[in-house]
Structure prediction request, 378 residues.
Amino acid sequence: MPSSSDDAMTNPNWTTLPMDLVERIGGLLISDDASDFVRLRAVCHPWRSSTVETKSRADFFYPRNWIMLSNPKSSPSDVCFFNTSTHKSFSFDLTPYLDTYSLFRALDYLFLLKHKITQDFALLNPFMKSITPLPSKIESNRANAPKRLEDMFEQIIHLEGVFVTSSFTIVLQFGQEDFLRTKLGDQSWMYGGFNVWIDGNVLFCKDRLLFVTSDDRGLVQINLANEIPIKPQVEIVISSNELPYGPSMEERCYLVDCDGEIILVTFNRRHHQWESFETYKLDLNEKTYVRLPNLGNRSIFIGHDRTFSVSCDNLSSVPANFIYLCELRRYETACYNLKTNRVKCLFGEPFLNSFPLLEKLIKCCARPCWKLASEDDE
Prediction:
């Protein structure tokens, strides 16, 4: 007859785990994979109770490492998300929300909705299945500044990014230099630009916006952790004359979050040919960078407004140590092999049909978001 201790080993009572341990596990899961955190909370009531504080973290509102592979306009009942680190997938049915809301934009991790009756905007988090109302009023001292959020969308300026800080400040990026900020629960947006011409992409990392300017400032960061209405401060991390690329319009550099490390990718294009690729690892605290000869088990995808890296461990359809250039400046898509130092143009290449995941990653990198509100997005 089995003893009670044997029974406890084969059928453990997980509800008896110390609550501080469950909260700690939840904190680790939420920083890496929000879907696993949701599954953790679904186990039992004690585990849901012990992760209430963890659920209030901005990581849960703004899950990391997830990108949207499918266009929700064409398949709202089966929107597919992919985790670039764990390779897990997550499907979401958007159709129940479309009775009340119209889908205005779909970004990496969030849906921007517009209420069909009130015309108010809101953010839908598919991992939480929660809707967060957004203010409609905009406050600004600028002359001719838009007064409503809808005015921003009616202008030529496009929404290119949504960022959520650890203090639950929501930031919308329009174009390259216009930003709106609000705190969850506030009744208005603060509107402001940073008077810099951004040369490349904007990268959000640890409550900071990072970008390289096309003037003499160089690599710049903006700390968004300050309480509103304090204006974020623009800080030069590395001046332009210390960056590892020249001022020529043919030379470009992009910032990539590569498994928590910031990578600077520089390359040159001469006579319609890609050449001179280099990768560097940035140390934002020391304000330095070191040459990075290879990416190890990862590959990088670079678009004009979006960059990301993918772990290639056990992912045969995406080879490691490659840089994919996805329709930059209306040029063709190309890939660069860091091992052989060779560039190959992929425009019309039939081999992409054999690697559907790679093709989807290239397509979603080439656009900052799925634009759904206008006819030209068909």
